[in-house]
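Can anyone check this?
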Amino acid sequence: MTANRGFGIDIGGSGIKGALVDLDKGELIGDRLRIDTPKPSTPDAVADVVARIVTHFGWDGPVGITLPAVIKKGAAQTAANIDPSWIGRDASALFAERLGRNVADVSLLNDADAAGMAEMRFGDPAARKGVVALLTFGTGIGSALFQNGALMPNTEFGHIEVDGHDAEKKAAASAKDNEGLSYPEWAKRVNRYLTVLENLIWPDLFIVGGGVSKKSHRWVPLLDIRTPVITASLLNNAGIVGAAAAAAEGLEH
């Protein structure tokens, strides 16, 4: 293991992705491996996939892992788009056991927090100034909030109520796909969501990420809100990079 390498795994509602990471550049080393999230996405089933990915790369160092959940002291407190049996589970201990590692060598954190940490470290320098909210649009909507680059962990802005609905039910990328919405139709929903959110937290900048960020040119220019919006520099790899960086530093929430 060289000093500038790390390993991150990003667990989502539809896929589990892992890769080696260059911690100097914030880039993946080689290709990532993606495996569909098992159904049901129980802790044991997901841990099996995580172990497959780590074994595939032959990685024997610390591992950073993200979950779409609020994480407190290694335990999942919520379960957004994963099986409810995660709630209350000591996920750090589960992964450590499955990977044959000490708990200290497994860093577990919220998926959007990991993506945000990667953007703070490797992304646009403007993201390190003032109040910045990163939002990942995927199966749900993940959020990460920063003040001058410092993380306030476990925000759940994807679940604020907008027009009587949980925000992510209408504005997540999955809603676009499931309902067959065009980018302009979906952008109207995102615009409404961001308008509500910006009036709650008054950020200086929004960073938008997640899988749909690869097509940001088709919807970000359609947004008409007070707050500037930029696309995540690391696109959909930010969670992997942030997880790897957290593992290298021994961080955990």
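Reply from J.R.: I decoded it. The CA atoms of residues 96 and 103 lie 5 Å apart.
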